[in-house]
Amino acid sequence: MIDVFHAIHACADLVHYWDVARRGEGVVLHVTSRRAFPTPAAAEEAAGEIAVRVQPVGYDVQGVTTQARESDRDAGWRAFVEVSLS
After folding, report:
1. CA-CA distance, 68 to 59, in Å (whole number)?
2. Which of 76, 4, 1 lies closest to 44, judged by CA?
3. CA atoms of 75 and 65, how far apart (whole Å)
4. At the N or C end, where does the chain have fewer CB atoms within 10 A?
């Protein structure tokens, strides 16, 4: 699990919120961007960068989902990433 913490720290400039949950035999990592973006396309681009940088060493990546979500707190769009690991 320490590798997950190192991966999150490596992209702390982009990450606002993250959590880890057990899913089957592995875990799933949820990450949300630090800032809101003006367009869904900009949030998707940030999500792609987060997805690449947040993958921890020592785990098999089973799947990665990226998307833009409309922000509840402020105007704009946030990047959301889900990484399934085993």
Report:
1. 25
2. 76
3. 23
4. N
Distances (CA, A) of 68 to 36, 60, 81: 10, 25, 9
pLDDT at 3 over 90: no
Distances (CA, A) of 22 to 5, 7, 19, 68, 74: 15, 18, 10, 24, 30
Mean pLDDT for the stretch of residues 30-43: 95
3-state secondary structure of 52: helix
Residue 13 pLDDT: 92
